[in-house]
Write a structure and sequence with these properties.
single chain; 417 residues; alpha/beta; Serine Threonine Protein Phosphatase 5, Tetratricopeptide repeat; 3 domains; seven-stranded mixed sheet; 11% strand; globular
Length: 417
């Protein structure tokens, strides 16, 4: 039941998914899982069931799209939003409430984080509303329930949980005052009628979505996002997507780790009192010259310490094969890992590196971005993607990624005794 292009084409048509962005193994695993659930014995059998059942079509999409999110992911984005929201209200003289869009909203952590950040910043309920949207009805239903387990709360600062949640036996229930600020609905960003009659939004969050699309679909989605964002608004994206927006004329607002972009020709500068003084740092290493970052299969991959498990053994084996120049075997091992285990940033990094070696620049770029989606500060993926962008003439995007890699390296060295 593997390598059946019909399922790849179905997901591309329905949700714009580029198979290269996630790897065939993940889609094949989802097809196998759904086939077992419905009792389909062959690929043709499951394909016929899929064509007949809208519910099964949605179930396959759910099996492929595994939401990985938590409250206040990328916290600087929410701090920046709060500052910009206060400034925006003053600019429009509080003549209306702010409109904020979160898509895909997954299971609700992002739109509720937006609401909590603005309430904590002192905004009154009538001064803003948040619209959350996702292609998955199951995710939207979970968001509407507003009940979360411990995995939704990560990081060192969880004071917001005490302010906005109540703990019960089945998990943490979000407060009604937060829930009332958020409206949730099912919607597909590729639907041309999406929010057609709605006014534009002051702030739009669309993070870690563009990396799943091929270039034509990215262009299509960007045009939709541009239409949804007010001309003076701000678009928040994922850490691996900055260069994509840069190519379409959007500019970073200049706040590190906010991943926020606007249409303004000049960066938007928030009040300087909110920006911490940078620590002294050594100069970043120069970017490689225009030629491709790898021209032979002798490129060395730095192995990681593997945990004592089957997954760890596979990771170590991939590193060994890649370092020995056995590209085909290493790629097969990566596909095996993704088929049998949850996605891992290091595996997508290796797939990117192997594609780089083979001269498949676009495929390599997709894998590097997937690695950065799972681990935004993955230093090797940052540097290799920077080198790839530089070779393609995107010097600005390359410099941004190189700076992030330098910050990651500095933070890592400072954390060591």
């Amino acid at each position: 039941m593997s390598n059946d292009p019909r399922f790849f084409a179905f997901l591309k048509e329905r949700i714009g998914l580029d198979v290269a962005s996630v790897g065939e193994a993940i889609i094949e695993r989802a097809v196998r899982q759904r086939s077992q659930v419905v009792g389909a014995l062959t690929s043709d059998d499951y394909w016929q069931r899929l064509q007949r059942s809208h519910d099964e079509q949605q179930a396959l999409i759910e099996a492929v799209i595994v939401p990985e999110t938590w409250f206040f992911r990328y916290p600087e984005s929410f701090a920046t939003l709060a500052r910009l929201a206060c400034a925006r209200l003053a600019e429009i003289k509080q003549m209306r409430g702010l409109r904020i869009l979160s898509l895909p909203c997954s299971t609700g952590e992002e739109p509720y984080s937006i609401a909590m950040a603005l309430l904590d910043a002192g905004l009154a309920p009538h001064q803003f509303k948040v619209q959350g949207m996702d292609v998955s009805p199951l995710s939207v239903e979970r968001a509407r329930r507003g009940v979360y387990g411990k995995n939704s709360f990560r990081g060192g600062d969880l004071a917001f949980r005490e302010r906005h949640f109540t703990e019960h036996g089945d998990g943490y229930h979000i407060a009604d005052r937060v829930r009332e600020q958020v409206r949730l609905q099912v919607g597909n960003l590729l639907d041309p009628a999406l929010l057609a009659n709605e006014a534009s939004y002051d702030f739009v969050f669309c993070r870690n979505l563009l990396i799943y699309f091929d270039q034509p679909t990215q262009q299509q989605v960007f045009e939709v996002l541009k239409a949804l964002t007010h001309v003076d608004g701000v678009l928040f994206i994922g850490p691996a997507e900055g260069s994509l927006l840069g190519r379409h004329g959007m500019r970073s607002i200049g706040v590190p780790q906010s991943f926020a972009f606007s249409r303004h020709a000049e960066p938007v500068r928030p009040e300087p009192t909110f920006i911490p003084m940078p620590k002294p740092q050594r100069s970043a290493a120069p970017l490689p010259a225009k030629p491709r970052p790898f021209s032979t299969v002798s490129a060395q991959v730095v192995p990681i310490k593997a945990p004592p498990s089957e997954a760890g053994a596979l990771l170590s084996r991939i590193a060994t094969l890649a370092n020995q120049g056995k590209s085909a075997e290493a790629r097969a091992m990566c596909e095996q890992y993704l088929s049998d285990h949850p996605p891992a940033a290091q595996v997508f990094y290796w797939l990117g590196l192997l594609s780089d070696v083979e001269g498949s620049a676009q495929q390599a770029q997709g894998y590097y971005r997937k690695a950065l989606y799972l681990e935004p500060q993955h230093p090797q993926a940052l540097m290799q993607l920077a080198a790839l962008l530089e070779s393609q003439g995107d010097s600005a995007g390359a410099r941004r990624l190189q700076a992030r890699a330098a910050r990651s390296e500095r933070a890592d060295s400072e954390s060591k005794p």
